[in-house]
Structures are given as structure tokens and as C-alpha cells.
Automatic annotation (TrEMBL):
GO terms for cellular component: plasma membrane. One of its GO terms (molecular function) is potassium:proton antiporter activity. It comes from Streptomyces rubellomurinus (strain ATCC 31215). Its main location: membrane. Keywords: Membrane, Transmembrane, Transmembrane helix. It is a multi-pass membrane protein. Residues 35-188, 222-363 form the Sodium/calcium exchanger membrane region domain. It holds the Pfam family Na_Ca_ex. InterPro entries: Alkaline_pH_Ca-Antiporter, NaCa_Exmemb. It comes from the Bacteria. This is Ionic transporter y4hA. The chain crosses the membrane at residues 12-29, 35-54, 66-87, 102-123, 135-156, 168-186, 218-240, 252-275, 287-311, 323-340, 347-364. The lineage of its organism: Bacteria, Bacillati, Actinomycetota, Actinomycetes, Kitasatosporales.
Length: 366
């Protein structure tokens, strides 16, 4: 029975990217009625799920921590494409979209995914055990890039408002890309063992203990389908984006909620992957996914929107407001205190989730 279910799931993830691409071709640059937008949204979600599935297949073939890296980059490519697509159509109204989406991704990953993973693992195994060296390095990079890219613009004076000048934006984009590249090199080459799961006794696990890895042919097919799914996601997101923005405006919610919706949409499948790892007591894999996604979101999105700003007509606002800077500071301090002991209880997971809940409340009711 289990074998049949797996086979059905495999067939589903092969068909969905292709069908989603066909739907994209049929709806491209068309004025869509409401019911068609609903259908397109369903295919968009299905394409995201299939993309993450194929990223996981590639991840299983390559092993940790390469697996978490593939998944984080795949999700971030989706996020960056959605941001640039919406900014291209939104004008001045979308000037804060990149900031809102990146900050939402940081809050969701560093508090939501991290908190849920710790909570699930600690409830099942009493304590959640992870590697402080790798987790601390990722958290340090997030703290530095988030401050340089999202906090400093509020205090600079070369440009009016919480914006970077061209020189400052070039620096922020370059620093983000360089630091993220150095982190990837540290994670995958020089100190790979810092990012591998550990046992409660501190022994590093350098092998998978469940399903045999896929063949090279299966991994290659997943790589191809991952590309098709990502293209479909970008195009279908462009089709449904006016409806998302209209729904937010009609509900009387702040425009920042659009960024929260985008981040939640692209990070939901990754949340599921992290929770699966936490259930198997591989919390380090969960934290690789959470913090790796936050770091990729900053390290890849800031350079992408910096380049896009050269042809986009609207301004690019990156600076956070005071309330969000407080939440960012709290997240970094709390994350540091969680990482240092190398193990956590359900209490730490619940505290992280409380911070995420506070962020959501302020997003809806600032």
C-alpha cells in the first residue's frame, strides 16, 4: 500500500509541472475572470509543492547539507521571482514589497520554522539537539546581512526616506552576495560537519537512515522538472498577483500584508520538510532549512532587487520601521540564546512562536 502511494505521488509530481506550464501558456497576458484566477492559484500551489518535492529528491541524492541548500535556493528563487514580478507591475505602491517580503521570510524562518521544529522534536524526544557551530554561523550571517540591508537604510541621509543611495545599495547587494557565497562554501566544503545532524550524545550523523538515495537518472529528471515548476510558479504568480493585492486592499489591511502572504506561500512546503526532519530527530537539518532560507532570502533578494531597480520606475524602500527593528533585534538575541546550549526544550520553541505571532499581529494591525 505504501509503495503504491509513493508511486502515485511520484506520478503526480511529474504531471503537475508540465500541466502548470501549459496553464501558464494559456493564461499569459490574459485578463482573467475570478473563477479562472482560482484555478490558476490551485495550479500555482501545486507547482510550488512539486518544485519542493523535486528539490527534496535532488537533496536526498546529494546528501546533507547540500540537500538543505538546494531546497533553500529553490524556494528563494521562487520568492525573488515573485517580488520582482510584483514590483514591475506595482509602481510606487510596491516600493516596500522587497523589504516586507524579506523581513517576513526572516521572521517566518527564524521564529516560525525554527520554533516549530524545536517544539516538535523536543516534545517527542524531550530535548532538541543540534550543532551550535553551524547554527551559530548561520545566525551570525543573518544578523549581519539583515542589519546592513534592512536597518541601515532607516538611518542613512544621502537619500530621502528609508532608502539607500546608488552607492550604498551597490555595497549592500555586493556584501549580501559575498557573505552568502562564503556561507555556502563554509557549509558545503570547509566545515561541512558543522551542518550535519547530531545524536543526543554529540555523534555526527553523516548518512541517511531511511530510504535509499535516488538514481542519477531520477535526480536528473527531478532537476529538469524543478526548472519547469519554477518557471510555472513565476508566471502563474504574475497572473494571480493583482487579485492578491486587490483582496488585501478590499479588506482594509496594510499593503505590507502582501509581502507576508508571498513569504508564507513559498515557505509553507519548506516548513513541512523541516517538520519531517524534526520528527526524525534531525533538528540540524530543520535548522539548516530555516536559517539557510532566511540567509538565501537576504543574500539573493537584495542583489536581485538592486539590479531590478535600474529599470523599475518606482523607489526601492528597504529600511524597517522602529517596531520591526525591535522584532528583528529580539529574534537575533533569542536565537543566540537558543543556539548556545546546543539543545533546546519545548519552552524555547514556544517563545520563538510567540515572537512570530507578535509579528503577524503587528502586520495586520500596526
Amino acid at each position: 500500500m505504501i509503495t503504491k502511494l509513493r508511486a502515485a505521488a511520484a506520478q503526480w509530481t511529474v504531471v503537475v509541472p508540465v500541466v502548470s506550464f501549459v496553464v501558464l501558456a494559456l493564461t499569459w497576458h490574459e485578463d482573467l475572470p475570478g473563477w479562472v484566477v482560482g484555478v490558476v492559484a490551485c495550479f500555482l500551489v501545486a507547482a510550488v509543492l512539486s518544485a519542493v518535492h523535486h528539490a527534496e529528491v535532488i537533496a536526498h541524492w546529494s546528501g546533507e547539507p547540500f540537500g538543505s541548500l538546494v531546497l533553500a535556493v529553490a524556494v528563494t528563487v521562487i520568492e525573488v521571482a515573485l517580488i520582482v514580478t510584483l514590483m514591475a507591475d506595482g509602481g510606487d505602491k510596491s516600493s516596500t514589497l522587497a523589504r516586507d517580503t524579506v523581513f517576513a521570510a526572516v521572521m517566518i524562518t527564524c521564529n516560525g520554522i525554527l520554533g516549530l521544529s524545536i517544539l516538535v522534536s523536543a516534545i517527542k524526544y524531550r530535548t532538541a539537539v543540534f550543532n551550535a557551530e553551524g547554527t551559530g554561523a548561520a545566525l551570525a550571517c543573518i544578523a549581519a546581512l539583515a542589519t546592513l540591508s534592512l536597518v541601515l537604510p532607516t538611518f542613512t541621509t544621502s537619500s530621502p526616506g528609508p532608502q539607500f543611495s546608488t552607492t550604498q545599495l551597490t555595497y549592500a547587494a555586493t556584501a549580501s552576495l559575498v557573505v552568502y557565497g562564503l556561507f555556502v562554501a563554509t557549509q558545503t566544503v570547509r566545515h561541512r560537519d558543522y551542518f550535519l545532524p547530531v545524536t543526543p550524545e554529540g555523534r555526527v550523523l553523516d548518512e541517511e537512515d531511511h530510504v535509499s538515495p535516488p538514481t542519477v537518472r531520477a535526480a536528473g529528471l527531478s532537476l529538469l522538472l524543478l526548472g519547469v515548476a519554477l518557471v510555472s510558479v513565476v508566471g502563474l504568480a504574475k497572473a494571480v498577483s493583482p487579485t492578491i493585492e486587490s483582496a488585501v486592499d478590499d479588506a482594509g489591511l496594510p499593503h505590507a500584508v502582501v509581502g507576508v502572504v508571498i513569504a508564507m506561500m513559498v515557505l509553507l512546503p519548506e516548513t513541512i520538510a523541516a517538520l519531517r526532519a524534526a520528527v526524525r530527530n534531525r533538528v540540524q537539518t530543520s535548522l539548516n532549512l530555516a536559517l539557510g532560507s532566511a540567509l538565501a532570502s537576504i543574500g539573493l533578494t537584495i542583489p536581485a532587487v538592486a539590479i531590478a531597480s535600474t529599470w523599475l520606475s518606482g523607489p526601492l524602500v528597504l529600511g524597517l520601521d522602529p517596531a520591526h527593528m525591535v522584532l528583528l533585534t529580539l529574534t537575533i538575541v533569542l536565537g543566540t540564546l537558543t543556539v548556545i546550549p546546543r539543545r533546546a526544550t519545548p519552552l524555547q520553541g514556544a517563545v520563538h512562536l510567540a515572537v512570530l505571532a507578535g509579528y503577524v499581529v503587528l502586520a495586520v494591525n500596526p
